[in-house]
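Much of our argument rests on the idea that a fold can be written as discrete symbols. Part of our work consisted of pairing the sequence of a single chain with a tokenised description of its backbone. We regard such an encoding as a compact summary of how the chain folds. The amino acid sequence and the backbone structure tokens for this protein are reproduced below.
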Amino acid sequence: MNDIYFSILIPVYNVDKYIRQCLDTVMSQTYNNFEVIIVNDGSTDNSASICEEYAKKDLRIKIYNQTNQGLLLTRRNSIQKAKGDYVLFLDSDDYWEKNLLEEVYKSIKKYHCDMLLFRYNRVNEYGKLMKRDVGVFENETMFTQENKELLFKQFIKGSRVNNIWAKVVRREIIDADTDYTNFKDKKSEDLLQSMPLFCKAESILYLDKPLYNYRLSMSGRGRNFKAQYLDDIWAVREVVYDYMVKMGYGSEENLKLFYSYYVLCIVRFAKAFAITGPTQEEVSHTLNKTKEKALFLNALGYLKFYNFSLEERICYYLFINNKYRTFTKYIQINNLIKQFLKRVIKY
């Protein structure tokens, strides 16, 4: 065993508004055997100087600077530098509960698991609680080779357990040398990195406690919609499909869950695309290209409207029948109505 028990990996890029709170909640943890690996991804604000300020006060903090490479590759670079027995990921605009490390340490010592998952809170720009993540399993549920498929179903039918920052991972099972360059700046990179961890972990513990605070800020990386996300969904879901087959989980039920959620993601991102101001030609081109993907064509044979709202079902109908102009107008009008209702309720 190493002298260092936890390696905390923090990618930093232009977060001088939030980085102090992030680091304060790490340095005030009730368990203190850890190192902090900060990789500054070419920040142009005061983030780097703030991190240096903290590093001067505590030798457990190590800072590395690089030219901008994006969140995924920055995380991969930080893994290479980790020395702890277990690794945690913390986004620099988010923050922890003060007992996070103590809680996961006690659970790891009790169950000797390869990976541990915990819940999180959604907070707003100012750190005010907006919503608590609802648990998906009972506290201290253990997953091994005999029942891991139950957890895999959560990966393919939603996003509740996908976040890399809601996991603690034994460093020995991390695919540290895998080249992720082709997936740079892609949406769903958390799910992409979670798949090999899930595959290699022989024991995974679910801790039904909200220990992480996920900030929904306008400036957070990856939280502003881009049209390329429709392609990103396809690329990452192809990887998930390959793991599903590799692990022998490709049952009829799982295929329905997998393809249905894949289509739901497409519908939701298509809705977001429609309100970002593209031309009608751009909408038609993007949505047509999405429907040409083999993964989407295969989905039509398995599609079930699990978790689709009425609005999403209407959007799917318009989308699948090439009624893109109506699709765009429907989304834009719905969005205006929702904004109006929010203002009315507020006042």
User: Anything to note?
Assistant: The first strand starts at residue 6 and ends at 12. The two ends are 58 Å apart (CA to CA).
